[in-house]
Amino acid sequence: MLTLSGVAKRYPTGDRALTDIDLTLPNGQVMALIGPSGAGKSTLIRCVNRLVEPTQGSILLEDTELTKLSGHKLRHARRSMGMIFQEYALVDRLSVMENVLSGQLGYVGFWRSFLRRYPQEAVVEAFRLLERVGLTHAIDKRADALSGGQRQRVGISRALLQSPKLLLVDEPTASLDPKTSRQIMRLIRELCAERDLAAIINIHDVALAKQFADRIVGLRAGEIVFDGDPSELTSEILTTIYGEEDWDTTPEPMDDEVSDDPRDTASYGAAPAMAVGGGQ
Amino acid sequence: MPVSTSPLGQPIWRRRTTRAQWLQYLAWLAGGSLFLLCWKLISDNTMWVFVEDAGRQGADLISRMTPPEWGYANVLWKPMWDTLNIATLGTALGIIMAFPVAFLAARNTTPHPLIRSAALVVIVSSRSINSLIWAMLLVTILGPGVLAGIIAIALRSIGFVGKLLYEAIEEIHPTPVEAISATGASRMQVMNYGVLPQVMPAFAGISVYRWDINIRESTVLGLVGAGGIGLQLNASINSLAWDQVSVIFVMIFATVLVSEGISARVRHAII
């Protein structure tokens, strides 16, 4: 559904962030993008929704060529790409509900959004999403009153209210503790399965990437150096991606929850309540 | 590097090298000499005969100002009310005009660099002219009265509010703005959801602060005929009615004190 061909990005400062990226993401696939800081992971996903302008190459989302769009058409295309951020990127002084409803901004006109008169279906969907991520009690709170894990759930709800086909996820767990990280990753994974969404997830934590992704792409200095199944990711490959390191002694913070199965939707009901406590 | 070795072989560290230290002494000497030279110049140009009886003149002025003619206060309520209106309406008008100008002037919200330059010119020209001078110009154009005062205060406030607000806009967190743009929001929606909530506390604080300043500034606008209590002040000084002047001073002092209290309380409540 998403095809990048020959995508490159050179910043005005002369830094080459990406060189000649070719990548195809099929429907419903959750892909983890790993690589050292500065490898171009953030630039890559920002090129897709054009928060960063790629300098060359083409990006096709289904049949739309994204790199040529501007104005109204770009806004239209952005609606189908939900983005989730590292520092949550919520608007602190707005309420949780307003933050979630801002996912609808691409669909409603200025005055409706200014007066907070959203279509009833959007409001119903927002309530449903907040219930799904376990935040019904926090609807009227200000976004800055929530804990990290809760804020990321608001960010996820906002992205999903866009009814996207694709999720672009930038370091969703980098500011979270190990337990909340896994709960957030599991939530993203489940929501992708429920709604048949494809996702690109930038992530630093190789263990999490292996556990929750269908496919792993390794980026180093703006080039793809690995593309394959999580099980193929060996110490040698990690060395090509990140450089020399003794990979086997990397501590894996996995021991607190034994029954961590990414597809274990049945046990989900209890998870949000725990996340509320765990994230604070 | 001012690091050397002592005879005992231990490293010695000083803040400056010997050369830098001497240069610094020299700089202090030059600065001190300049100050004394200026002092002498001013002293030569002062007519000391007038200064010598300053104490007597001051005491004389105070004796003429006291006791204040309290009955005169009854005449002052109306001009004082005018002064408050000039300050409040002028501030409101200034804020309304400064708000869009600030968004055009901030690097991260301006639609085009050329528009940004134009907005900055508006801000600088408003700031570079004092309200008293604005009032003088406007009294010539509009004739004397409260309207000239209101517009003078408004024009001066555009620059102050505009500058502080555009600086606040440039300091916002960029990620929420990115996130709102990523939803497919239009430019105006990004301003409304991403930028505005972030600058609201600064905006409210700046506005109240400017209102507070404007109360003080509007008390003198009458000196050039732009209405308010300054008109009375001017008249009383011209007729050497110093006991009335002291009533006006007390009144201005009380008003400024109250406005300062209100603005401090409002700012505290908002931020």
Automatic annotation (TrEMBL), chain A:
One of its GO terms (molecular function) is ATP hydrolysis activity. InterPro entries: AAA+_ATPase (IPR003593), ABC_transporter-like_ATP-bd (IPR003439), ABC_transporter-like_CS (IPR017871), ABC_transpr_PhnC (IPR012693), MetN_ABC_transporter-like (IPR050086), P-loop_NTPase (IPR027417). PROSITE patterns: ABC_TRANSPORTER_1, ABC_TRANSPORTER_2. Residues 243-280 are annotated as: Disordered. One of its GO terms (cellular component) is plasma membrane. It is a peripheral membrane protein. It is found in: Cell inner membrane. Its main location: membrane. Residues 2-246 form the ABC transporter domain. SMART domains: AAA. Keywords: ATP-binding, Cell membrane, Membrane, Nucleotide-binding, Translocase, Transport. It comes from the Bacteria. SUPFAM superfamilies: P-loop containing nucleoside triphosphate hydrolases. Residues 243-259 have a biased composition (Acidic residues). This is Phosphonate transport system ATP-binding protein. It comes from Vreelandella subterranea.
TrEMBL record, chain B:
GO terms for cellular component: plasma membrane. InterPro entries: MetI-like, MetI-like_sf, PhnE/PtxC. It is found in: Cell membrane. The chain crosses the membrane at residues 22-42, 86-106, 132-155, 247-266. One of its GO terms (molecular function) is ABC-type phosphonate transporter activity. Its main location: membrane. It is a multi-pass membrane protein. Pfam families: BPD_transp_1 (PF00528). Residues 80-263 form the ABC transmembrane type-1 domain. Keywords: Cell membrane, Membrane, Transmembrane, Transmembrane helix, Transport. Coiled coil: none annotated. PANTHER family: ABC TRANSPORT SYSTEM PERMEASE PROTEIN P69 (PTHR30043:SF1), PHOSPHONATES TRANSPORT SYSTEM PERMEASE PROTEIN (PTHR30043). Belongs to the binding-protein-dependent transport system permease family. This is Phosphonate transport system permease protein. It comes from Vreelandella subterranea.
